[in-house]
Amino acid sequence: MSSRSSAAESFRSAHDAAFRAVATAVARLDVAAPRVLIDGRSGSGKTTLAARLSAEWPRAGERPQLVALDSLYPGWDGLEEGTRLAHEWLLVPHAAGIEGRWRRFDWDVQAFAEPHVVAPDRPLIVEGSGALTPAAAGLVHVAVWVDAPEPSRKARALERDGDTYAPHWDRWAAQEARHIETHDPRALADLVFDLL
């Protein structure tokens, strides 16, 4: 087995363990329409974890809604604004038991596009870099922080998004670093996973 395939297998194994831990925490919740938030730096595995949680939701009879901050960031300098919009458009209304509305940012035309509705009576998963702040932590039932060493994160992110992302890696990483310094999401998380 090559070192690359061995690393990929190790990542999958660690990711499987993380998924099981999150799914167990969600299954144990004694609330209706729970809110789960998954934060982490680019390439850490948070998007894959959120997608799997949505697809394999561990509570019978519920159909979760998944919103990625990638849909909210208004451009390559938009991490902080994406954080604010997720709080305002998604978490606050859902926690108040009212319908939330968010608009997808169209990166091609650099403007917000069609609206989407978030139903208050269905579980909500929010994932993305910058999602976990002190204000957000007070509104969710399970908060998750996912991390991994920069070389492996960068390799995964660039393999996924290639030439589109490569020129902006440092610019985005600086915004993630400011988020971590300002909000300390690791300390706010109920579950922390250091993947490979």
Care to describe what's here?
The structure is a single chain. By secondary structure, the protein is α/β, with parallel strands linked by helices. The protein has one domain: 3-Layer(aba) Sandwich (Rossmann fold), CATH 3.40.50. Strands 2-5-1-6-7 form a 5-stranded parallel β-sheet, with helices on both faces.
The arrangement of helices and strands along the chain is HEHEHEEEHEHHHE
Question: What does the largest sheet look like?
Answer: 5 strands, parallel
Mean pLDDT: 95
How many strands appear in the DSSP assignment?
A: 7
Task: Return the CATH topology.
Answer: Rossmann fold
Tally of structural domains: 1
* Total number of helices: 7
Name the helicity range: 40-55%
CATH superfamily: P-loop containing nucleotide triphosphate hydrolases
CATH class: Alpha Beta
Strand order of the largest sheet: 2-5-1-6-7
Give the overall shape, derived from the CA principal axes.
globular
* Portion in beta strands: 15-25%
Task: Give me the Rg, rounded.
Answer: 16 Å
| Structure classification | alpha/beta
Low-confidence stretches: none
C-alpha end-to-end distance = 17 Å
Mind telling me which CATH architecture this is?
A: 3-Layer(aba) Sandwich
